Amino acid sequence: MNGQQRVNIRAGLEVDIVLKQDQATGKLTRGIVKDLLTKSPTHPHGIKVRLTNGQVGRVKQIISGAAQ
């Protein structure tokens, strides 16, 4: 699943995000979603989230359905 639709993303999911400083290179960072920051139902560059470690970025790929 991709990260462009808010309905697909919830707290506890394992996702790959692109951090603001990595947008030029497309480097992905993996983590667990803590908060959803984008309010609109969709976003062309991915829904913005905060990970449990505090990093903020846009979801590029959903890895798993629930944190273990």
Automatic annotation (TrEMBL):
InterPro entries documented for this protein: DUF2196
Any single Pfam family the record assigns to this protein: DUF2196
Domain of life (superkingdom): Bacteria
Entries under NCBIfam families matching the protein: YwbE family protein
Protein name: Repeat protein (TIGR03833 family)
Organism, as annotated: Paenibacillus amylolyticus
Organism lineage: Bacteria, Bacillati, Bacillota, Bacilli, Bacillales
